Amino acid sequence: MTAEPTAEPTAGRAPAPQPPPPFRDPRLPFDERVDDLLGRLTPDERIAMLHQFAPAVDRLSIAASRTGQEALHGVAWMGPATVFPQAVGLGATWNDDLVRRVGEAVSREARAMRARDDRVGLNVWAPTVNLLRHPLWGRGEEGYSEDPALTSALATAYTRGLRGDHPAYWRTAPVLKHWLAHNNETDRDTSSSSVRPRVLREYDLRAFRPAVEAGAVAGVMPAYNLVNGRPNHVSPYLAEHLRTWTDQELLVCSDAGAPSNLVDSEHYFDTHEEALAASLRAGVDSFTDHGTDSSLTVARLRRARDEGLIDETDIDTAVRRRLHVRFRLGEFDPELDPYAHHTPDTALDTPEHRALAQEAAEQAVVLLANDGLLPLDPAAGQRVAVVGPLADACKLDWYSGTLIRRSTPLDGLRERFGADRVTHAEGADLVRLRCAAGALRVPEAPVDEAAPGAAEGALDPALLSGRTDLPPLTAEPHGDGTVLALTDWGGGVLTLRAPDGRHLSVAADGFVRASAEEPGGWVVQETFRLEPHGGGHLLRHLGTGGHVSVAADGVKVAAGPGEGEACGELFTVETVERGTDAVARAAADADVVIVVAGNDPHINGRETEDRTTLALPEAQDRLWRAAHAANPRAVLVLASSYPYAVGDAAARLPALLWTAHGGQAAGTALARVLAGDVSPAGRLPQTWYAADADLPDLLDYDIIGSRQTYLYFDGRPLFPFGHGLSYASFAYDGLTAVRDGDTIRVAFTVTHTGAVPADEVAQLYVRAAAPSVPRPLRELAAHRRVRLAPGAARRLEFDLPLTALAFWDVAHGRWTVEPGPYELLAGASSTDIRLTTTLTLDGPAPAPRPVLTRPLAAADYDDQHATVLADRTKERGDCVTPADPAHPGHLLHRACDFGTDGAASADLEVAGTGTVTLAIGAFRTTVDVTTSGGPYDYTTLTTPVSARGVQDVRTELTGSVRLASIGFTSAGPAT
Q1: What is residue 973's predicted lDDT score, i.e. its pLDDT?
Q2: CB-CB neighbours of 373 under 10 Å
Q3: Cis ω for the linkage preceding 661 (within 30 of 0)
Q4: Would you state the pLDDT for residue 459?
Q5: What 8-state DSSP symbol labels residue 148?
Q6: Would you say the C-alpha torsion 45, 49, 55, 57 has a positive or negative sign?
Q7: Which of 53-67, 78-92, 459-473 shows the lowest per-residue confidence on average (mean pLDDT)?
Q8: d(CA 747, CA 738)
Q9: Could you read off the pLDDT of 900-917 as tens digits, one per residue?
Q10: Beta partners for residue 219, in sequence order
Q11: Which residues contact 656 (CB under 8 A, 6 or more apart)?
Q12: Banded pLDDT at 11 (limits 50, 70, 90)
């Protein structure tokens, strides 16, 4: 036996350094390091990490951390940053590579800004991949497209740019928003999106899946709404779909305030402890609630644990996911972090980022119509008038950063055509507001005085208040007061601007001041409405709901809308000059007039507020008509976050363009397109409908049944999905399509037949020519933006998975590629198809529903009328119920196979009160349903039936009845 070695004396010698704990050892895999760190945290330290703002763990030298940093089209809310075009504008580029480069630039700037301000987070909440299903959705500016293939391609590109290309460490950790089926601001935290299985799989989930599968996504954020009666923050789809797409740990971050909504507004749970527990078990890992104060959420989670609603495994699972993100971001390996070198000096507002912002803005411009007026020749010496409410504006939205540089259309045109040849008229009405106390007057304010704290970033700009350091408006008894510029944004919503450019705004003290550079804030304080009353007008401030009044200490707003009309001053509006007159004068004195109309992203369509119409605001409609009447060489530029129905303008005007708000280089980009320096190649990422009558209800999410988006819309749009003209021309030829196993290899040639270098966006669509179920009229399968010189040609090749032709077969609960002919269509838009070829697939025909061996799920209908999907239980599953208990709802399940022996009985799994009527061929029966235990108290009712062979099953539901399934029992062999 060998003796143990004897330790040498240590007197006078420093103790040997302790090895770092495993979680600090970069040689170990992240999984081991995360598990080690998790094991060192106390139970309460782990719970504390479940809030958005996780505290430091000083004893382990673990820093505080936060989830969430807005970065939709630039780093937002944290001060000056490069501002790229809105997401819908990036969608209009149809350029995956460009969007990836924008993501890279945004993530570099996030790193650079964090180097000087540790409030800047690296877990970025972007991009938004909600599909632009409905053009009246107030947040349409945040998405890329109505099409899932285009959306997912651009989302994958952007997240790859945000993530970086290092195999282990991420530059930023992107979170996709908003899971799931979220396209309405109206009642957004209480409304339920009824999403049938085919729409769920073929449409909504497809926007998320490719980016997750690409490994560039750190997680997702659930949306405020409910889907099929169940809040997204307890969605079973997080486990059933999202987490099956990747082996990577995904972090699910709640939306702000949504955890409390589960009780406070949705009343889905009785207590906050139940709500948080259910969210945690469903897969939510980080709770964004109560701002930076984590105490309330942490206390609720502790009580949930103590009450047995969650256990340590639930908590550890969520904490582990959050720690994985922190390790990937290099927090624990600063010396190995390949992105630690990004600083404000090297990665913020660089020449490369400025050039990229301009390139993105140029590529986002869509030429909608052109009879040859464009491009304009700057060398021809033409006089150009640029008019309209957005002619000298560079608008930001809620998720923009602070502009470092700014270019308006007026700036761009003056720079490109010469300041001496460009004139400007805004087109606002110039007015005085008079009341019994006199004319409203804006006191003089210090010149160029910045708002206190204006240069500082804010974690939540909703918390910023208006200025109170400037004097309020007064009423001038014997003078003319101040002439104000009144802009009508539609629906009677007005802004009023003083001669020095500041908008009238209301701060927390209720006084009206000329204090805001632009309308903005979570609750916009710069909008008003003139309401006819008693021979004059009351002036309502929309942010507070109160009427404007005049007091001894200044002009202020009454306490609120409940105070009555007596609290408001009666105003008369004296028009000094009509905006249409100024526009007409400028247009008449010019060789060409550019009318720049559109929206302010904080007014009439934004987060919390849907639009009510596709129509251009009446005041703006009058402006382009006045300009065109004075000068037929009129161009209408729509700078907007969403589509408009402008059929009259498209028919009358020689040229029409659209661009989303294009960020810091918007004006320069537009001028270069108008001048022909850049041939426009933006393409519409969503359908422009001709009228409101073409639209379904905002809350109707069944794109198949209500024929929504270019996929199913069978009307005539004003401008179709994928549309966009060029100053060049292109020919398409040589389309081939060959099946190679599970891949379809498609190729065609695009040839530049024009005279100027230009981009073309080649689009490839597929169509099932003889489907057994309703399928899209055409569906985007691939796209490519290519740059070609005159006379040049390029052969474009695409490899499509065979699954691109599949649909979700509700009869059998699986993806199916049915046999038959499929058309492959190549062209310049969804309706400008230049080449078509047909590929015929062999195979067995779809089988009927095996209803004797597989219960008929009510939600797996083929068609329905007046029903909605609801939650089978609070945890999982769907059922069907009438949309209105006062009116019956109907379901159709086609091709149900009852066999040669037939069915003798049906077992109805039901809850609620009402009736269920089954009609199978000539057979019909009605079953009364009465359950007393609430909507989740299901019972099985059995009724005799008579059905044989393959038959359609028609079901009528009345009252509050909920139908989950119908099981059929075979009649057996006849005796």
Answers
A1: 74
A2: 16
A3: no
A4: 55
A5: H
A6: positive
A7: 459-473
A8: 9
A9: 999 999 999 999 999 999
A10: 175, 251
A11: 367, 368, 369, 370, 635, 636, 637, 638, 646, 649, 650
A12: low
The mean per-residue pLDDT over the stretch 563-575 comes to: 80
Widest CA span of the chain, in angstroms?
113
CA distance 931 to 881: 14
CA distance 169 to 337: 7
Other C-beta atoms within 10 Å of 596: how many?
A: 30
CA distance linking residue 966 with residue 630, whole number of Å: 68
CA distance 285 to 281: 9
Active site residues: 255
Tell me, what's the pLDDT at 972?
Answer: 85
> How is 218-268 classified by DSSP, letter by letter?
-EEEE-SSEETTEEGGG-THHHHTGGGS-SS--EEBPPTTHHHHHHHTS--
CA atoms within 13 A on the CB side of 721: 31
824, two tokens: 């492959």
Query: Which two tokens mark 715?
Result: 């009307």
Count Cβ atoms within 10 A of the Cβ of residue 950 and give its class: 0-12 exposed, 13-18 middle, 19 or more buried: middle
Segment 679-734, tens digit of pLDDT: 999 999 999 999 999 999 999 999 999 999 999 999 999 999 999 999 999 999 99
Tell me how far apart the alpha carbons of residues 929 and 925 are, in angstroms, rounded to a whole number. Answer: 13
Coil vs helix vs strand at 17: coil
User: How would residue 462 be classed by pLDDT, with cut points 50, 70 and 90?
Assistant: low
Q: Locate 54 and state its tokens.
A: 């996780």
Of residues 789, 798, 792, 842, the one with CA closest to residue 819: 842
Amino acid 7: pLDDT: 44
pLDDT-derived band at 6 (thresholds 50, 70, 90) equals very low
* Dihedral over Cα of 163, 258, 145, 671: its sign: negative
Residue 258 has pLDDT above 70, yes or no: yes
Query: Any bridge partners for residue 788, and if so which?
Result: 758
Cα separation, 109 vs 161, whole angstroms? 12
Beta strands in 802-888 (DSSP E): 807-809, 814-816, 820-827, 833-841, 856-857, 863-865, 867-871, 878-882
- Give the strand pairing for 484-488 and 429-435: antiparallel
| Helix (H), strand (E) at residue 505 | strand 503-506
**CB 403, CB 83: distance < 8 Å:** yes
pLDDT (mean) for 282-290: 98
CA 926/CA 938 separation, integer angstroms: 18
| pLDDT tens-digit readout, 357-391 | 999 999 999 999 999 999 999 999 999 999 999 99
- Which tokens belong to 329? 């971001």
Residue 953: what residue type? Answer: V
3-class SS shares of the chain: helix, strand, coil, % to 5: 25, 30, 45
Task: Write out 571-589 in H/E/C secondary structure.
Answer: EEEEEEECHHHHHHHHHHC
Give the model's pLDDT for residue 4.
39
| pLDDT at residue number 561 | 53
What are 197-203's contacts with CB under 8 Å, separation 24+? 197/808, 197/810, 197/859, 197/860, 198/704, 198/807, 198/808, 198/810, 199/701, 199/702, 199/703, 199/704, 200/237, 200/808, 201/808, 201/815, 202/148, 202/807, 202/808, 203/131, 203/148, 203/703, 203/711
Q: Give CA–CA dist 862/840, Å, rounded.
A: 25
Q: What are phi and psi of 122, to 5 degrees?
A: -105, -10
With 0-12 CB in 10 A as exposed, 13-18 as middle and 19+ as buried, what is 488? buried
Give the pLDDT confidence of 78-94 residue by residue, as tens digits: 999 999 999 999 999 99
Answer yes or no: are the C-beta atoms of 36 and 304 closer than 8 Å.
no
What pTM was computed for the model? Answer: 0.96
The confidence score (pLDDT) of residue 567 equals 72
AA identity, residue 241: H
